[in-house]
Amino acid sequence: MTEVSQSTDYAGQRSQELYGRAQRVIPAGVSSPVRAFRAVGGTPIYLESGRGSTITDADGRSYLDFVMSWGPLILGHAHPEVIERVRAAAADGLTFGTPCAPEVELAERIVDLYPGLEQVRFVSSGTEATMSALRVARAATGRDRIVKFSGCYHGHSDQLLVAAGSGLVTFGEPSSAGVPDAFTSQTAVLPLDDDAALEALFNECGRDIAAVIIEPIPANNGLLIQRTAFLQRLREITRQHGSLLIFDEVITGFRVAPGGAADLLGVTPDLAAFGKVIGGGMPVGAFGGSAEVMSVLAPLGPAYQAGTLSGNPVAMTAGLATLDVMEREHAWKQLEALGSDLEQRLSPIAAEMGGSLVRQGSLFWLNLAPGEAPRTAEAIPDTIAEPYKAIFQSLLQQGVYLAPSAYEVGFLSLAHETADIERLAQSLNAARDSI
Ligand SMILES: *Cc1c(COP(=O)(O)O)cnc(C)c1O
Prior knowledge:
Strand order of the largest sheet: 4-12-11-10-9-5-8
CATH topology of the largest domain: Aspartate Aminotransferase, domain 2
Oligomer: single chain
Number of helices: 13
Bound molecules: pyridoxal-5'-phosphate
Mean pLDDT: 95
CATH architecture of the largest domain: 3-Layer(aba) Sandwich
CATH class of the largest domain: Alpha Beta
Structural class: alpha/beta
Number of domains: 2
């Protein structure tokens, strides 16, 4: 290894230079907090290019990537067919602010693939998708209150930046500065995996609840695989009380099965939010439900929602190309095989580290705490953060890029091969000695 400093900062000179400049003109130098490497220490690596499962930084160093831009790149970096089609679409104009054919095609595909969905509308991020789905739910039910679960992330809209209140059945408090109490006072926060808490809340105020939003396979605070019975109970109780169930499938949509977690688990929500994979690397989100529920949206109905760049032809083409390749190559079967291989190779290593390997399809999480895989955020001890730093830095030095936080999951793509998984296992083994 070249230029390894005494500290655990393995970033090259060019990355350090760029980060220095960035910190003057961008808060903490980054456009999204986790990128600042605060949870693992050191300087963020500045990336310049990617091909398949490999990324290359501004200093010319290559890494095997298990972050894949946090999920969108399910075909790998710079997939030739996606790039070619995006290039062709771009040559005809980036955006018109009018309807276009690719948006119709992508909507048809999503509606075909996702259980119970009749209509979708496009936005430009997952944050907008969940925010808009909640607005639709409130408009459709005429109710204000919503419920989310602790440990689930749904983007950064005000109403969702909320922590549980102190009482048994209380509504939430802002978890971020800049969010007025009034904006979160209509959001209740429940623990995952807790039927009793769910029932208590619905008994108390079920008739006021517009919607419950959940990541059906929570993947933003570790990988908290739920009991299917809990999701079924959620389906039942929302239906009984006339509340809508929203699945946030921004990570799981088109990844864990063609029709997302709803398809995989056999639980159909009233509304679903998409992002990440559906844009194939371009900024795309979508939300949808039955034609009846979606008819509250302007100009059909009274709920306003809009976007200058929503459904633009280049972004829609990236999503379509991604789904085309996935269907043609039986992606879901391949990703499951790859994930299963990874689980087999990594589980013993994770156990030797005193933890476990948690996996669902092509999503995986190195859980550095002993015992059963946690199902709630509260069950993850904060002792996992410290040992992860050393593992992350050791992997980075060995040319393997895992997420820069112990709480983030890893992503496999169609571009990953058995050799990549072997290399991850070897590097983890070497890293084990550093903790
Ligand atoms: C990433 C993510 C979001 C937010 O999407 P952005 O495109 O980052 O706004 C929402 N929900 C889930 C489950 C996500 O993983």
